[in-house]
């Protein structure tokens, strides 16, 4: 196959309009990849696009994972089998409403780290990552007989920086391994296009937007004219929906309005739908938006009001856009999509429960330090950190406060709940009555997701946990044990449910379910407080009573025939007696 970028895209010397959809393999169960890609092709698309999240593939420095949800080559094989072209975006930073924009949290353990820059430790980490990742893409290139058309250099860099030396470093690294066209994607206006592109390197520039194709492509044309470039117009991210945050209502976009904006894009150029199917932010990988003084972590569902639902069902918007594609690109092949089967399994009792404080020492070996450290400094990336120190004598403490912490703190004295602080409350003084000669102060801090976009995307603002310290009156408290609660499968396996239960404190609840076949279902979390759910040791993501989605989608991929174990970590002192597995999601 021959692919060229001239005044149009050419494949085997035939002009082609690229009609693509974003599908993140890491947000969709592998058992459903083929169905999603089939529905993409059925809508009239000829291409699939995906980001590559660095933090998923290198969870610890030098430790790589390309299995399960991270099996990118299996995903690319599925696309190739269906005859779809592929665009891959393996830039170190992806945004994507993904934790830290895809950058690995272990970068934050380095003092003075400056991401997306010429910082030598950062560049060295990128180079080491690419040495493992990029060879996996080589056989999929169209120059090698595959279907991979082009790859991205950096993502919306013009909305962050203008360091051309850094961009050229990435180009050099990519070209060590790949010999297909490279591209950048930025917003569709002059300043970001000037800052984030590399015309002198021959890098194809694209624009991201969700409406007003005429205005955005006008700026792309001006950029091309300025640099004497002949190239097609492409919207690399057409935002057909939007992501959602806790404590806010679901965001929706009207189907016919969206479809007509798609028509405007197709009349002028090529398109990549962001998202075609959003999927799910499994584990602790949800990102966080910068809302000024307050951050807004994204929810577990990444439904995005996309063309397929979180669980893969075609929407009204899907059919409205399919109709427009057929009208504007008559050569596009459309067909009837398929639907996933959803199952209501019913109600199951909680068989066992145990308090976090009862099993803390067994599941987490404490890291000792004279002052509190952020989680990244104790070799932890995600989840919760419990900080513990001792307070002496029976007495009343009128002023106790935490200095500089992210994101949410629960205070316990002698394992009794005292207070919760979140964002605007962190740093406020609380009073504490000590009733023993030796008193145990425990602070459970939840990392609710790192920023994925904006000016806070620098190392000093993204470290999680207690970053300053804990003060009584006007002095800092000393001698802290740090318990790391990332809840990886090996840690969950150490939970001893025979130990004492105290449901007024953070607790684990276990349910065993026998299945004759694997199924797709939703866990009803509407009666829970706040926490995380694990199925057979795998993290399904967070829930919170403050919504806006009151369920967790649990796909067939995570179940197995026979005995299944579901564990809930509930932090709000709610005694969970039973669970309900239902057929449809609950949304506000």
UniProtKB/TrEMBL annotation:
Residues of the Beta-galactosidase 1-like first all-beta domain: 374-486
Record-linked Gene3D superfamilies: Galactose-binding domain-like, Glycosidases
Domain of life of the organism encoding this protein: Bacteria
GO MF annotations in UniProt: beta-galactosidase activity
Catalytic residue list: 156, 237
Sequence intervals crossing the membrane: none
DNA damage is among the record's keywords: no
GO biological process: carbohydrate metabolic process
Keyword Hydrolase: yes
The Glycoside hydrolase 35 catalytic domain, residue ranges: 8-327
Positions of the Beta-galactosidase galactose-binding domain: 506-564
Keywords (A to Z) from UniProt: Glycosidase, Hydrolase
Protein family according to the UniProt entry: Belongs to the glycosyl hydrolase 35 family.
Protein name in the entry: Uncharacterized protein
Organism: Enterococcus phoeniculicola ATCC BAA-412
């Amino acid at each position: 196959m021959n692919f060229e970028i001239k005044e149009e895209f050419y494949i085997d010397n035939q002009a082609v309009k690229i009609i693509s959809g974003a599908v993140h393999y890491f947000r969709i169960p592998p058992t459903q990849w083929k169905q999603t890609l089939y529905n993409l092709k059925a809508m009239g698309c000829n291409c699939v696009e995906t980001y590559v999240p660095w933090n998923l593939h290198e969870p610890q420095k030098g430790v790589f994972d390309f299995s399960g949800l991270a099996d990118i080559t299996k995903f690319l094989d599925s696309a190739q089998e269906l005859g779809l072209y592929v665009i891959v975006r393996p830039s170190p930073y992806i945004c994507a409403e993904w934790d830290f924009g895809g950058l690995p949290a272990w970068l934050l353990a380095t003092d003075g780290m400056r991401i997306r820059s010429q910082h030598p430790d950062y560049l060295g980490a990128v180079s080491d990552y690419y040495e493992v990742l990029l060879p996996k893409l080589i056989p999929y290139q169209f120059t090698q007989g595959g279907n991979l058309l082009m790859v991205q250099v950096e993502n919306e860099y013009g909305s962050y920086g203008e360091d051309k030396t850094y961009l050229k470093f990435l180009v050099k690294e990519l070209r060590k391994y790949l010999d297909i066209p490279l591209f950048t994607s930025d917003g569709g206006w002059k300043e970001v296009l000037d800052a984030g592109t590399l015309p002198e390197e021959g890098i194809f520039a694209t624009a991201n937007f969700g409406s007003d194709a005429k205005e955005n492509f006008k700026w792309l044309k001006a950029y091309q004219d300025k640099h004497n470039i002949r190239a097609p117009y492409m919207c690399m991210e057409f935002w057909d929906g939007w992501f959602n945050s806790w404590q806010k209502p679901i965001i929706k976009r009207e189907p016919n309005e969206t479809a007509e904006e798609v028509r405007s894009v197709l009349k002028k150029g090529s398109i990549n739908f962001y998202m075609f199917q959003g999927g799910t932010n499994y584990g602790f990988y949800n990102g966080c938006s910068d809302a000024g003084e307050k951050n807004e972590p994204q929810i577990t569902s990444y439904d995005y009001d996309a063309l397929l639902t979180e669980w893969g069902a075609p929407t009204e918007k899907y059919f409205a856009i399919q109709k427009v594609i057929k009208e504007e690109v008559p050569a596009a092949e459309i067909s009837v999509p398929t639907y996933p089967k959803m199952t209501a399994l019913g109600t199951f009792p909680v068989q066992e429960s145990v308090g976090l404080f009862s099993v803390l020492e067994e599941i987490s070996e404490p890291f000792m330090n004279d002052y509190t450290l952020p989680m990244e400094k104790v070799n932890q990336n995600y989840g919760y950190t419990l900080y513990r120190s001792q307070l002496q004598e029976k007495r009343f403490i009128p002023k106790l406060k935490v200095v500089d912490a992210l994101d949410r703190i629960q205070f316990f004295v002698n394992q009794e709940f005292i207070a919760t602080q979140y964002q605007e409350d962190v740093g406020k003084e609380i009073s504490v009555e000590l009733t023993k000669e030796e008193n145990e102060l425990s602070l459970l801090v939840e990392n609710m997701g790192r920023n994925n976009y904006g000016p806070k995307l620098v190392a000093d603002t993204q470290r999680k946990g207690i970053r300053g310290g804990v003060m009584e009156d006007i002095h800092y408290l000393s001698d802290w044990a740090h318990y790391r609660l990332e809840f990886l499968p090996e840690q969950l396996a150490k939970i001893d449910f025979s130990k004492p239960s105290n449901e007024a404190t953070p607790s684990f609840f276990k349910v065993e379910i026998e299945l004759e076949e694997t199924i797709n279902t939703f866990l009803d979390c509407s009666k829970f407080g706040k926490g995380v759910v694990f199925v057979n040791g795998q993290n399904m993501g967070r829930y919170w009573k403050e919504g806006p989605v009151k369920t967790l989608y649990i796909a067939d991929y995570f179940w197995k025939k026979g005995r299944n174990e579901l564990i809930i970590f509930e932090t709000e002192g709610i005694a969970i007696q039973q669970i309900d597995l239902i057929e449809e999601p609950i949304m506000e």
